[in-house]
Amino acid sequence: MMCCKNTNIRISLPAVCFVWQIAMIVLFGVFIRYDEESDVRKWIEFKVSHNITSDIENDFYFRYPSFQDVHVMIFVGFGFLMTFLKRYSFGGVGFNFLIASFGVQWALLMQGWFHALDPDTGKISIGVESLINADFCVASSLIAYGALLGKVSPVQLMVVTLFGVTLFAVEEYIILSLLHCRDAGGSMVIHAFGGYYGLAISWVLYRPNLNQSKRLSGSTYHSDVFAMIGTLFLWMFWPSFNSAITDHGSGQHRAAINTYIALASSVLTTVAISSMSDKRGKLDMVHIQNATLAGGVAMGTAAEFMITPYGSLIVGFCCGIISTFGYLFVTPMMEKYLKLQDTCGIHNLHAVPGMLGGFIGAIVAAAATEEVYGREGLIETFDFEGDFASRTVLTQGGFQAAGTCVSIAFGVVGGVVVGLILRLPIWGDPSDDNCYDDEAYWEVPEEEESIPPVLEYNNHMTRKHPDM
Amino acid sequence: MMCCKNTNIRISLPAVCFVWQIAMIVLFGVFIRYDEESDVRKWIEFKVSHNITSDIENDFYFRYPSFQDVHVMIFVGFGFLMTFLKRYSFGGVGFNFLIASFGVQWALLMQGWFHALDPDTGKISIGVESLINADFCVASSLIAYGALLGKVSPVQLMVVTLFGVTLFAVEEYIILSLLHCRDAGGSMVIHAFGGYYGLAISWVLYRPNLNQSKRLSGSTYHSDVFAMIGTLFLWMFWPSFNSAITDHGSGQHRAAINTYIALASSVLTTVAISSMSDKRGKLDMVHIQNATLAGGVAMGTAAEFMITPYGSLIVGFCCGIISTFGYLFVTPMMEKYLKLQDTCGIHNLHAVPGMLGGFIGAIVAAAATEEVYGREGLIETFDFEGDFASRTVLTQGGFQAAGTCVSIAFGVVGGVVVGLILRLPIWGDPSDDNCYDDEAYWEVPEEEESIPPVLEYNNHMTRKHPDM
Amino acid sequence: MMCCKNTNIRISLPAVCFVWQIAMIVLFGVFIRYDEESDVRKWIEFKVSHNITSDIENDFYFRYPSFQDVHVMIFVGFGFLMTFLKRYSFGGVGFNFLIASFGVQWALLMQGWFHALDPDTGKISIGVESLINADFCVASSLIAYGALLGKVSPVQLMVVTLFGVTLFAVEEYIILSLLHCRDAGGSMVIHAFGGYYGLAISWVLYRPNLNQSKRLSGSTYHSDVFAMIGTLFLWMFWPSFNSAITDHGSGQHRAAINTYIALASSVLTTVAISSMSDKRGKLDMVHIQNATLAGGVAMGTAAEFMITPYGSLIVGFCCGIISTFGYLFVTPMMEKYLKLQDTCGIHNLHAVPGMLGGFIGAIVAAAATEEVYGREGLIETFDFEGDFASRTVLTQGGFQAAGTCVSIAFGVVGGVVVGLILRLPIWGDPSDDNCYDDEAYWEVPEEEESIPPVLEYNNHMTRKHPDM
Fold first, then answer.
1. What is the pLDDT of residue C4?
2. A96, A444, B278, C124: which could join B282 in a potential S-S bond, CB 3.0 to 4.6 Å?
3. Ranges for the Ammonium transporter AmtB-like domain (chains A, B, C) (predicted)?
């Protein structure tokens, strides 16, 4: 090893983990309480006051199956999608696990302060929908991690997540509450924001000599199969992602159908472009692992609207093509001309499809008619109530488009600022010739080409006596 | 490479994907609409007209968790079960992904035309049950893929799926609607049909010199572990498969219990026979990966009936034995004497247990009594309503048996016809010495025995600059 | 191979499987019936008698999604967590599959006799909650397997499971019914019992020359990634584990929230301690794979109580630390001084956190107030009804603590007895130099360093002609 940078994080990583976890305990103690559907006393009172006869009407039964699907997407989906590198699988799945676990706690607080703070008691009430929203919130930081994979230290990732969750909560508040946009699956607030946030950080952290780690920047046969676990769990559960917090009843039902259809369409166009781009028609695992998901990203806003099944097919069709072209042309060009290194290609999977999804949502909202939705349905779908009772669908479409721009602006500006913070020489990040290498932050088992014969005792990697 | 056949699919695969996907968009535009539980306007009206007070009675909440389990079985279950070959894991999981994604779209149309076409409007209404049925439908083509694994091109697989879904929709209409059979978990319509369909295709496509690819026809240690992911997700979620579209209430409840019990029993007899068959009592991963699932296949028809828990145990007991014996004796003999090469052994896992499941269902139906089911229960379970109000359980049993024969006939005849189509020399299939090899259709990363030292730049497999 | 012990199980394993499976069929025939929610006739009558208007109130819809999550934990979670050894992945996931499949059947009977036997008819009624409980019951034997991994034969594991399930049913009856403890997620009855049961067996089976197998006692890069599949599915679905059989409504809702929060906290403290313990701050996969789960184990009893979100955070915080310290110091010391070899470190993941979870539950129960729970909520949460209507929370806390001691006593005493049985020289266990090796009980594919060239036919590991 000729790396000269110090990647020792023995002080900084434990310090960050302990300080932040203790801060979480204190803040949870001050602020977080069960909501009226998860508190035993309040739920009994709630049932009486709302004339509910059966426990099955607890929000838990509407949302818990979708929550668990989303949870799998966050930890197994994102985690395993990032195991594709030949020697960074531990970091891919392990750091994803670490920052998601921290992020959801901070998200419960940040989102709680903006959306669920009781002004009388000063307390935040949480229920299953809060857990889903926390998972959603942290997804944007995991997307950003995709651009940085292999090039940053876990301490830096904790910082990315701390600021990512904070920025998310603010832009979400502006977009959903102030602009009153609808964005149940988060094309804007999750994917466009997270994508541009990660790209901006990666741009600031540009490594001119990253090709010194080129030997480790590819995949192996089995690491590509591991990554397919991530891809498939993301793909299969995306209908749950886009429907998890939509309206009870037809809203969840329709969002799941639309997403299912769009994703199926993405797969075919991804395969088509991937095959066309090789002179012998061979498919590229990078495309199959990523671009097949673009339809789900792009349906994040419009899935709950009456976009129609063929509308969903068209969205998936186009986004599969656009995303695959991105992997073929845009990512290499961005690295060459923009000096932007994007390890997982989040530009093509999250940033662009997320942005498109925001605008698709705007168009579909603007095109909504009372004939299709019904009067009551329009109110229900777009929440035209209270201060927004008189808003028209055309205005709504305009605000949806504006929301998309807000999310991108937050991502770019926030990412640049966070990137500058991460350039401080205190974070234990790897040197250019030491990227994409689990050796820097993990005890890696020695790979034995052949299992040594019986009675040879000199193997010092054992399960039960880890080196101290 | 000394293969002489041209496996270049740069024109044909993109052409097929684009043409079919565009056709899907047009046909969805003409035919497919949301049903009354997923359309925002219709659901509001439906609640009023049916006096429904809570959104929890939307069919989404009855079926969505089961749908997601089935979805995992289709994409991760079938996909990873087919990763066992040492150098065909990309093709196993990747082509499964491709054809399932195409198949579900075509299935929504085909099944819609037969079962959900509104004669007044000419439109097909879809909801969550349609998605489950589409997944079921495509399962039969994925089963057929199991017999063909490693020996066909992705273009051929698209043809297999196009015809497979079409034939499925017709046989399903005959069996479920005309013969009025019950087959919620698809022993007949999915497994027996899909199994014999794949076997017939494979028989027509017999490769006399396939042993030229023998070096690649086995597994490696880690590919066998990958395949266990597929096995376990199929095994765990099979109760959801068999209960996903059964009657609300006790129907779904009972189908899940029966399947759970039958599967547990299959595991023990599979292990017993596998151990007995080796001279030192060693277990064979092929059996554990496959025959353990036979109990689920065989319960596909009877799971919703009152087969009793010990009846389920007996079914699992017998099918574990039969299926393992199939792997030990029947598959080798079929290859030797019938000239039928069955890569995954679908004969033993799907064709025979599916056929047995059909007949078991017939027997259990014929043995149904008013004492056990109650008068109302008999009507609910067997749908003795409308034109079929006067049918007796004995007649029902006869029709169930007839339905099994129909499904087999469709599989065999359809498979022979499709096999002949696939023998046209235009599909880009591999030569005999090039089977089971991902190199034919995938850009495969170069395997490095040892990671080269720092500062060596000649690795040309990188994530960000794929060859064009 | 120079092993001298005979690991041939060609007679014993099939014999045990067949005898026990046939016994299951007979006993199921005599005892097991559908309950009133899964029997078509009884459910129709039940709806009338209980004035239920919608099938959605069938217990299936309250519990089935959680059941499937628990099912994944048992088969994929525990199974893949045990694939970490370089050459025992087949045994890890395969034997887990075998003994869980047997165990759930025996558990349905044992738990049925104690909890669901109708005194009039002599029959056991089963429904979805019975399936969850059977999965729970078998979890304790799988935990015990963790201590024995690689050192016992599958026949011994069947014996461990037979006695493990039996002991579980008895201690569960004493703790839940006689002592009237609450333990929905099983800190006491599952984890403390299972942990000490496995440790006691392993202690009795001490192998002084186990270091002769040291070459196989570590992991490889990819086997560690496989194990992360197990870790993550356990981690993600633990909220379902702890909420699966709690009270409908706020009970399930609150248990899921508390567990989610505790687990997130465990991850951060595990990472902190793991990093601190290495001189360069590197993380150890052993800790990430295991100690991150400690918060879920420790919330098994208290999750359904009003422990408050910050209380959950504190539990996770402490248990992540304690568990990681266990892996660092206690496991090596136990091996050295106590002569106790614990392959997976279940002492640190199950035994100690389970015991702590029991006492945490006792404290939280004793601290319950009518102010927080409400009068009706106290009765609902602690089942202060019937014979226990007059019990105070303080008494309840005392009984909870007593229950924890009972579970540990059952584990230790039962484990010693079972360990002595397993020392009989009839079980086909491996010799000391043959442990951790799949070769003993599995046909293992030959690993080819490089795929041989085309036209070489001498590979004799093929899919379709297994050696007989």
1. 56
2. B278
3. 59-441
